[in-house]
User: Fold these one by one.
Assistant:
Number 1:
Amino acid sequence: MVWLGFRNCFTNIHRNLLQVFQMALLMFLGIFMTTTFVRQISLFSPYSDYFDGNGFVLFDCGLDARNPENLYDKLEKTDDVNYIRYSGAESGGQSFIVYGFDKMALGYKPTLIKGKWLSEKRPYHSGRVNAVVSYTDKLDVGDDIEMEISGEKGGKFTVHICGMIANTALMLNPNGQENEGKGIRQYYSHDDYYFMDESMRTVSMIITDKAFADQFDGYFYSTRLYVRFKDDISTEELEENKNRLISEEYAVINSFDKVSSESRQYIFSKLVDVIPIALGSLILICISVAGVVLIDSKKRLTQYSVYYICGMKWYKCCIISMIQSFILAVTGFVLAVVAGGIMLRITGREKVMFEIGGSQILVCLLLLVYILVVSFLLPLHIIRKYTPVEIFKEKT
Amino acid sequence: MIKITELNKTYNKGKSTEFHALKGLDFTVNDGEMVAIIGKSGAGKSTLLHILGAIDDYDGGEYKLVSDTEIEVGKLNQKKLAEFRNAHVGIVLQDFALVEGYSVIENVMIPLRFSKRKKSEYKPRAMEALKHVGMDDLAKKDVNKLSGGQKQRVAIARAIVNDPDFILADEPTGALDTETTGQIMSVFKELNEKGKTIIVVTHDPQVAEQCERVIEISDGKIVG
């Protein structure tokens, strides 16, 4: 049966090529839609629970750097204060801005061109500080480099580069401008290595907050802070906290519930731009796939009748059809991946909504299930209308 | 031995278009016989052949195949009928019934793919069957490129590849010229001389002449 299904792929080759093309298009659209959806929510999903609570996004307007940990004492029912620390360093003539990402900041994993993201539980690698760098052509994953801390106090430490962020990939930005209406999207930014003047290229280096605290003794705090309060905080206590923050020269630039609702609206608006057209195209192609399967099955009735007289049960032609469609669908998937890969190579990741991850594989599997179901049911519908005797009589 | 007793077949039973195709047929075909079934168009020849080949069912009577065991075909379920067609019957049709796009040997191997034989047996058995019909040197050729006579030889090879109990041929020379008809009938005769039971349905008296017994059907009944 498997051989017969496989062999079907090489008879009536034009029809099969059409099916392969259709299935490649179907898989490509499925991957495209899923990637669009996943990319839009990927910036928000690591923090959806975080921003579902009560809290403020603050901007430190003070003249001097202040330790945000002090806010625990100054505010009522503070659950968590999150911020990013940063400082300068250099190695072999290359300047770095070193960021200490805490657990909250590490929640979002940017797109890495190589290696792996940091883990709060593993700040060190055999005595060297684990670090992820922004894109550069001067370093590589696996390199160990000696860092010299800028500033009066100085200091040295060795870094092991465990990952490199893709050029123009988004990452959480400790500073940066606010853009109303975009929710959490406004707290991300990206570096473009090739956009910077060669003489002024600074590489961002991210290490865990623990490693940062161990190595640096003179640093800056991010001007943007996130203060999360306990769930049982009252409206009056929130208002009181807000007033205290203003008096302490902190600007309350956003509330968590506003970030949460704006994030959802922003994602929705992005999806509404793209998904309806893609979904409509997907449905049309699904119908087209079913149509070609139907035509193919009808055209193969005589062939299946021959199998019948040679000893095959009549309904087994549906299984042959399924096997044929499976092979064509897998071929289509490979073609879609190759096409997507070529597009990525030419235009770059940020411009092409094409990735192969768990969600995309799941969607492709669902499309495969659809194809297999159609490839079984449509031939079944046809063979129920005809018997092999009728087919032979029609021919003679 | 094939034993047919009071065989009946009615199409569209109970409807206004009801047609009684076979009316109580009785006959036997012994092992090693070459029998011709003749009759005018619409007499019931093809209906009988389809029943003998287990392609179609029947409404009354008995159809038994007596070889090592006795098989009553009417009592078989779909799975057993498929096995019966595969193991006991070889069918040759007027329009050859070959799969276009397949090679000669691929067509001959089709019954083997539904059999319980090992894959390692497929090619040797297929080549042996092709040798019997003189087509072994064209094993890899696409069947679309064969002449009518060659196609029918391939169909015969496919019919014998699984060593069935008998071969059914429905107007096997209907689409062939006189010379090729003679060649095809020679192939059948050779197979029969080697002990193969052959039943040929034909309206051609010259084909019927070459068989050792003739059964004439008219209006669904045996008349001679």
Number 2:
Amino acid sequence: MSPDLLLDPQLKYWVLLPISFVMVLVGILRANVTQLMSGGPKLTPFKKFREQSFLGRVGAFRANNSVLTEQEFQQRQEYFIATLNTDHFYSEPISEDDKPANPFTDPSTNDAMMNMMKGNLMNYIPQTLIMGWINYFFAGFVIMKLPFPLTDSFKQMLQNGVATPDLNVRYVSSISWYFVNLLGLRPIYTILLQDSSAVDALMQQQSQTQQVPTIGGPGGPKVDKVYKAEAENLQVVDHKSIFDGIVERVLEAN
Amino acid sequence: MTLLKTKLLKIAKSGVFQDFTPQQLSETREEILSLGTDGLTTVEVYTLLELQFYISLLTNHDVEAKACLDRLVDQFDTEKSQRIKLLQSLYLEAVAGDEKKATDILCRDPDEMNLSRRLTSFSRKRANGSESFINNLIFYLDLNPSDLKSWGELGSQYSKVGNYEKSVYCYKEILLREPFAYNIFYLVGLEYYHWFLQADLNNNNKDKKDKVLEAVELLSQARNHFLRSIEISESYKKGWEGVYAVSNVKEFNDRIGGKWGQVKEVKKFLADGDKLRELSKSKIESI
């Protein structure tokens, strides 16, 4: 058992609290700036929407055609197959050449990349600054002693930046305190921001698991192929009406 | 407090307040006013404000509606939000009575589907109301083929002008999306029943066999749909009443029973009708 270190009580007021305080403030600031910088959700262009919407209608028909009678089923099946084979609902004319479009000239892709870059910047700049600040002023500080015992495996987590292999694990270094704050401030943000979705976004940014934006890569199926495939699916749909024998079912159940 | 909040948020989300009775509306309004904003998140506060706006419009509290609208407009960008534009246009139509301005707000961006739908509904008021409304709805549904609200609206419009076949088609479109919507099954049954009455009324040659079979077919379709609605929800009283009504068309039953009673379809129909009449009668009495 190593003897106790004597920690200057002033460390608490001039190192421990300021680091926590700055971390909280920067977190809130960042949440607000991120919100300002991210534009609102974009609407899908109505032609594209129409294309999808019709496909949705066909899908619903394929899944739930049991609510139709035989005659209605036939009528709709014919209509859908005929319509799927025309270009009535295509959002844009289909070009004949098979060359896939360059995804980087697509404005929606650019938007997604821009958003990702903004998010990354908002993440890295403040983190670099705070870490630089701590390393500059408080490098190698041991700033507090935890009031409870811990096993030795916590050493790496709590004593980052102090090169003392035999120091009791209960002592925490300044840079480790920074990391603990970085990952553990969620309850404080939840109280201060009162908006759980913003907190989620903030914590997700901090844990550095960035979502990869969906970039419409080449080779996405063209709409005419999708429609043709759907029409072929419809040819083989099996129909069984719920109205067959419904009288007997009800009479039996009651 | 939390329960009240959850209830109000549910009302706001489901839009069920549109079918409220005046008394329910005024009760809901009192509840919103009594709730206050303590302990609500920002999103919840503005959702409730939107609800308050709708309800004050419905209960003729114009000043209050204006206050809600102003608070929402202050908070959100009116150029970017469809929802706010919708509210503004509603207010202009309902209180200021300025239809031109109300439609202008809706016309700005063709991508805003919700606004296009509302734009469609304006033609209802024109001189040849139903017809142009139906045309507009068809146009809108061509743009957005999976909009259930509009299919429902188109169905009820067709029903109004007596085109029951098309009306059934529209309601079926809803059922394809929501196969357990028992109230829609009831509506379809009702349309078939009306269709049957219409066909029977216009039928000059009541003794032809194919006409009789057609009528029997319509009536059994109506019966099947009513039965499906009670199969999904057993305590749905309207559904049972429908079953009772279609199995109790006395004059028609006597007529076909007399002459066509031995035809296979008619025979089965009449036999089923007798059983269902008893069953539905006892069910209605017990519910």
